[in-house]
Amino acid sequence: MSVGAATTTRISRRFAELQARGEMGIIPYITAGDPSLDASLKFVEALAEAGADVIELGVPFSDPLADGPTIQRASERALKAGTTLAGVLDLVRTIRKSDSAATEVPIVLFSYYNPIFQMGLERFAVAASEAGADGVLATDLTPEESVEYRKILHAHNLDTIFLGAPTSTDERLAQISAASSGFLYLISRTGVTGAKDSLPDDLPALLRRARVATRLPIAVGFGISQPGHVSVLGGLADAAVIGSSLVSEIEKATSIEAGAAALGARIRLLKQAGKAGLSKREAAP
Fold it and tell me: Which residues of the chain form beta strands (DSSP E)?
């Protein structure tokens, strides 16, 4: 963990629990405010009750360059519904007060840096921490540009999560790891987000390189959507991030209740894959 990072957060405690059980973590992503913040509350509750280990809440942004068409459309719907960063923080506050499993699930705010910068780093960190968020991933912020950001967020007990990619050199992975706390997020493939049928052939080699660079838990995202993906990843990574396939379930749902049910069913399937077969990890001694 980088200097100044919190020694214990909900995120680090959850990964320690998973390691003790020899279990693969499942991290769902949804875009907050799609189709409304009230709907997002129901979705988070369904995800948590189905066994999600950490939940990523996407902050909608008008120019989401790293996102594929599914998440771009979700951002558009959320923005049309009036969702702002302040509104997402209010959602986190409501989640923490809800009468459900969601009250204790670790929450990562997944955002581009511009909304955070516009709010002001200190104001954002105070608001995020007081609302009950646990970590932040600013997708377009590099470790070199993040010194002040990390200092302020760590002072408010928020983990700072950064992205590693197949194109990252060993030296770069070490830099990303040094800036990260909570977990290291590895992108499984170059390009934008989106569900895929198979995992990249070079993913095991990327994970081996990342293991050398960090002692943090490693989560893999981009293109993860099926129980088979989770099963294959189980012996390699500590968690799988599932985004576009869940956002697609929300997009096609005929009601909020139907969307929540579909999300819960998919997470239960993925959690089962995370507990069985190839994905069964060695429990900590």
Answer: 25-31, 55-58, 107-111, 135-138, 159-160, 163-164, 184-187, 218-221, 239-242
Q: Return phi, psi of residue 31, to 5°.
A: -85, 120
Count the Cβ atoms, other than its own, within 10 Å of residue 268.
15
- Tell me, yes or no, if 67 is annotated catalytic: yes
Q: What percent of the chain has pLDDT over 70?
A: 89
What is the DSSP code (8-state) at residue 102? G
Residue 285 has pLDDT above 70, yes or no: no
pLDDT digits (tens, 9 = 90+) for 52-79: 999 999 999 988 666 778 899 999 999 9
Provide the number of structural domains found in the chain. Answer: 1
- What DSSP state is assigned to residue 103? G
Q: What six digits make up the tokens of 27?
A: 């991290």
Task: Judge whether 157 lies within some domain.
Answer: yes
Query: Looking at the whole model, is its pTM more than 0.85?
Result: yes
Query: From the candidates 56, 134, 159, 238, which is the catalytic residue?
Result: 56
Query: Model confidence over 90-102: pLDDT tens digits?
Result: 999 999 999 899 9
Catalytic residue among 67, 159, 238, 249: 67
Q: What CATH number should be reported for the domain holding residue 56?
A: 3.20.20.70
Verify whether residue 56 is a known catalytic residue: yes
Query: Does residue 283 lie in a domain region?
Result: no
Domain that holds residue 151: 10-278
